[in-house]
Design brief:
- The structure is a single chain.
- This protein is an alpha+beta fold.
- It has four domains: 1-30, no CATH class; 47-102 and 132-245, no CATH class; 251-351, no CATH class; 385-502, Sandwich (Immunoglobulin-like), CATH 2.60.40.
- It has 18 helices and 15 strands.
- It has helices spanning 2-10, 18-28, 47-65, 104-124, 127-132, 134-150, 153-161, 166-191, 197-206, 211-231, 233-239, 242-249, 261-264, 271-276, 289-293, 313-325, 337-344, 359-381, and strands spanning 82-85, 90-93, 96-98, 256-259, 332-335, 385-391, 398-399, 405-415, 421-428, 435-439, 444-445, 447-452, 456-466, 476-486, 494-502.
- The strands form four sheets. Strands 6, 7, 8, 10, 11 and 13 form a six-stranded antiparallel beta sheet that branches.
- Strand 10 (435-439) and strand 11 (444-445) form a beta hairpin.
- Helix 3 (47-65) packs across helix 6 (134-150).
- The radius of gyration is 35 Å and the shape is elongated.
């Protein structure tokens, strides 16, 4: 294009070649974006392919089995081991129960996941993308189904180019039917995390499930079917932000899949013929096996690229070829930029575990571990009793017919255990020792006993009154509600709540 424009600038207008003018017009009308070409990765065997199969089975097993795991909890708590109970605003994870006010645990897990992803990327490149990302896992499963029904890479390419026939229609229909079943199972098992799985399964089959369950399954079925079946590498390249962020996470000591050009170049297909002619070819025989197995459709020999997900299937393919031609394995391998540069300089260097220990990875690991330990300590020491006291705002106080001053409060006691508990409510730090509790029924006393059902919140209306206004120290008199557990199975839990007693002369509400 530049050469054509330079020609137009330097040559007289009357002498401009017609062919050049047509080329300019064609270049100007060319689309900036190439249409997608279908990628049919070739099946490969090797260490990294086996690792990906193992992780696929483990991860899908966890996803499909977890909702049906049972966990024995006391009381009326659900026995599903992992349950997001939106109706009752609870999250159950085996022996852990998370309440809405404890959402900071979920925030902590998200922080750990983010920092952990950064740590893994700085150590091993896009290992998450290549081995554990849901898009990768389900795409691998869909490609496996495709290869079993339509054949391996060459057979699928031929089938794409072949005209429609009964055989082609049957294969495509069978493939998409299996894809659809997998996609339905993906969405179906997702909703099992939000309700009792066996019960919901029966309701789904009989048509008695809530409409939101069917809607959720339909959405996840469609996204799984489209993303893993048709879009595949486009999701990773255009929809996922991580390829564009990962560059900031990598350094010269990050392990990434690399073609060792210092050893492979110049690449030649006829190696023996080249050696007979006195040439010195590299180890790469230009067989394109690494390109044929790549699920992203790239050539790793072009260097580190945004599309590469570090799945390492090209390593398995290249090692198999090197073994056949009698060359050492590792022409494509996991290596670092610093080791690559050292080998280019002629130094025989190899990776060792010390490359993992560097300042940035130490900082990431410390952050990840710090958040995890803080959450663990908080979880182990959290109270199973939560108390909140809401004072009456209108009016702040009431003067009774006998001259007594009374304030109203709503005491909310949250019992986080799965058994019924009884608590004693008393007052502490009273001004002049003159105040006493008054129940909603009018009964007076120094304390009240309150029974709270398992895993429930109980709100109790109480009043605090004083007969002698003179003993009050101020218009706003501070004291404490004390809630103590009675007859506990283990150590008794207590809680104190700071409160204010309002007296005459109060003109405005204190924050």
């Amino acid at each position: 294009m530049v050469q054509i424009l330079n020609t137009l600038d330097t040559a007289p207008s009357a002498e401009v070649d017609t062919h050049d003018a047509q080329a300019v017009n064609k270049a100007e009308n060319r689309s900036l974006y190439a249409s997608r070409a279908a990628i049919h990765p070739k099946s490969v065997h090797g260490t990294f392919r086996r690792l990906k199969w193992i992780l696929l089975v483990v991860l899908l097993g966890i996803y499909y089995i977890s909702p049906f795991l049972r966990w024995d909890r006391p009381g009326n708590a659900p026995d599903q081991a992992i349950l997001i109970d939106l109706a009752n605003r609870r999250f159950y994870f085996f022996f852990i129960e998370i309440w809405p006010q404890e959402f900071y645990y979920v925030a902590g897990l998200l922080i750990m996941a983010g920092v952990g992803l950064v740590l893994v990327t700085s150590l091993f490149g896009r290992a998450w993308c290549g081995y554990a990302c849901p898009q990768t896992v389900w795409t691998d499963l869909f490609i496996w189904v495709e290869s079993k029904i339509e054949g391996d890479r060459n057979a699928r390419i031929r089938l794409d180019a072949a005209p429609w026939s009964a055989g082609k229609l049957m294969k495509r229909s069978a493939k998409m039917a299996v894809w659809l079943l997998i996609a339905i199972a993906t969405g179906g098992f997702w909703v099992f995390y939000f309700a009792d799985a066996p019960t919901l399964l029966v309701e789904l089959v009989t048509g008695a499930a809530p409409s939101v369950a069917y809607f959720t399954i339909a959405i996840l079925t469609a996204t799984t079917f489209i993303f893993a079946g048709f879009m595949r590498e486009q999701v990773c390249t255009y929809m996922c932000p991580w390829p564009r962020i990962q560059g900031a996470m990598l350094d010269e000591d990050s392990l990434i899949v690399t073609y060792n050009a210092w050893r492979g170049e110049p690449r030649m297909a006829g190696r023996k013929k080249a050696e007979a002619q006195g040439l010195k070819p590299g180890d790469c025989v230009d067989c394109n096996a690494c390109v044929a197995v790549c699920p992203m459709g790239i050539d790793i020999r072009d260097g580190n690229q945004l599309e590469c997900i570090n799945c390492a299937l090209c390593i398995d393919a290249c090692d198999a070829v090197m073994e056949k031609v009698g060359s050492p394995k590792g022409l494509i391998n996991y290596t670092t930029s610093s080791l690559y540069a050292a080998n280019v300089a002629g130094k025989d260097t190899h990776w060792n575990w010390r490359h993992l220990l560097r300042p940035r990875t130490a900082i990431y690991f410390t952050m990840w571990l710090g958040v995890g330990l803080a959450m663990l300590v908080t979880l182990l020491n959290r109270s199973q009793l939560d108390v909140n006291v809401v004072p009456d705002r209108n009016p702040l106080y009431v003067t009774l017919s006998d001259g007594a001053i009374r304030n109203g409060y709503t005491v909310k006691i949250l019992n986080k255990r799965q058994q019924e508990r009884t608590f004693r409510l008393t007052l502490e730090d009273l001004p002049g020792g003159s105040m006493e509790l008054v129940g909603a029924s009018g009964a007076r006393g120094a304390s009240f006993d309150i029974t709270v059902e398992p895993d429930k919140l109980k709100a109790v209306k109480v009043y605090v009154a004083t007969a002698d206004e003179a003993v009050l120290e101020d218009e706003h008199n501070r004291f404490h509600f004390r809630i103590e557990e009675l007859h506990p199975e283990g150590m008794a839990e207590t809680a104190r709540y700071d409160a204010i007693f309002h007296a005459p002369g109060t003109d405005e509400e204190e924050d």
